[in-house]
Design goal:
2 copies of one chain form a homodimer.
Chain A: E1 5-10, H1 17-28, E2 39-44, H2 47-51, H3 67-70, H4 78-90, E3 100-106, E4 112-117, H5 122-134, E5 138-142, E6 159-166, H6 175-196, E7 206-216, E8 228-230, E9 247-251, E10 256-258, E11 266-268, E12 282-291
Parallel strand pairs in A: 1-2, 1-3, 3-6, 4-5, 5-7
Antiparallel strand pairs in A: 4-6, 7-12, 8-9, 9-10, 11-12
Helix pairs in contact in A: 1-6, 5-6
Amino acid sequence: MNIKRTLIVGGTHGNELTGIYLVNKFECEPQLIQRESFETCTLLANKKAYEIGKRYVDTDLNRCFQPSCLHNPKLSSYEAQRAKVIYLDFGTGGRLQADLVVDLHSTTSNMGLTIILASKHPFNLQLAAYLSDVNPNVKVLYCAPKTPENPYLDSICEFGCTIEVGAIAQGILDAHLFQQTEELVHAILDYVQAYNQGAPPQLKDTLTVYQSIGTIDYPRNETGEIQAMIHPRLQFRDYEALHPGEPMFLTFDGEEIVYEGEGIVYPIFINEAAYYEKGVAMSITRPENFRTKQLT
Amino acid sequence: MNIKRTLIVGGTHGNELTGIYLVNKFECEPQLIQRESFETCTLLANKKAYEIGKRYVDTDLNRCFQPSCLHNPKLSSYEAQRAKVIYLDFGTGGRLQADLVVDLHSTTSNMGLTIILASKHPFNLQLAAYLSDVNPNVKVLYCAPKTPENPYLDSICEFGCTIEVGAIAQGILDAHLFQQTEELVHAILDYVQAYNQGAPPQLKDTLTVYQSIGTIDYPRNETGEIQAMIHPRLQFRDYEALHPGEPMFLTFDGEEIVYEGEGIVYPIFINEAAYYEKGVAMSITRPENFRTKQLT
């Protein structure tokens, strides 16, 4: 199947400026994202959240794309409505139905350049393998949705991924991360062009995908207030090995709390600002290797 | 004049968690901030902003303390009212009138540990000199208010300072900066105790104070949208020398914009998230040396 239309999304979260300013740039200079064999559209997903400088107005837009929510007429939050409009435009059967969606995010965690797969479809895996070939700093991540239905925006198309870059504070631009994100977008478009022409690039033999195996919350008291911070030795150490017995949190009085799980894990989304309210101090992952030649 | 009451403030900005969690800690363990010769109070200044995860509800509380605002019955914003209540409690003639206020802030700029003087009163300068003696990483800053009247919270008392730590994203805790901020608070209280006992600590001969001499905005188009980002070579380089002709901004298309002022300056508050809306990409300073022996 050829890709006829690609959708590049910024501002799914209103305080993640990298994607918002990239989409603005592409809308001013559309020739940058044009390729011969397919159309590229852009979308500022949650403009109202951007205008108030927040992640969202009523609820997290990137948790609103479950089919049951998209088809539930009773949901009235601003983001539930935005999700419906976006799906109607770009989802299956939409007037601008897209085959591939690339959703641009940023994080206060030190995730570097992460490609989060929308699914483990061979196309997504091959695309991710290509991006990590082009830039060896790229990490590839897969987080299975916690719910039976996929709530993420990048699930509305056949193929998709999220680009997650950091560490960067909410509400600011970092020129280096801006340029690196733009380079990834161009690499994706180049890959699609080659794919459509029946000549996808040769890939390295192996792709490492970090698989999310769970989340760990901050220690909290009975009223839900957090009782400890990310330990300084874990801060900014996303994707590094954490062994049982190694420090994970530090209480406000300076006591260490260690990781008590079984076996080595690789934490990510460590100290992401938006996840305090979601009960997530970090996600933990384990790497899994895929042989790219078996993906076709 | 002895200091009878000290006020420690957190949460003047609702998304700067360091001060908020420190004040929470001190309120749970008040013995930590008790000293023999004076009383210490704590204040969570803008709890409503904290609850919504924003800097402020209606307007920046730390720009609401001009005497003309405090005495203007027509101002009805949430923060204007909070300012009046705080001043009534802790300002001159208040039921808990404080002699010294310490306001705890954080910033997305790489300001390290900065003491911002509320005024150049010899007490404030000596206190800052002591703190930079105790921790050589401490920088001391003075920003004269742009308005004839001082709008900052730390101006409500005879003596005062703001502790500004970073770089840290809004909405998160950083254990290392939390502990360093707490150490500065303890050092301040220890200094006040020694001062009240007539035995203030010996100080080094010279104190360097960075004097704010102006602000520089992002390049913007006619509708006010920013057209460039902080240059990667300037990002996180607060307090480092910037020479005329050195890069300052990078446009979204990758063009460098250089600093065209006269003489070397030392930028601070580089890429502070809250200042995008204030038209400030950075403040520029020049260092000035004070002889501490002449301060008494």
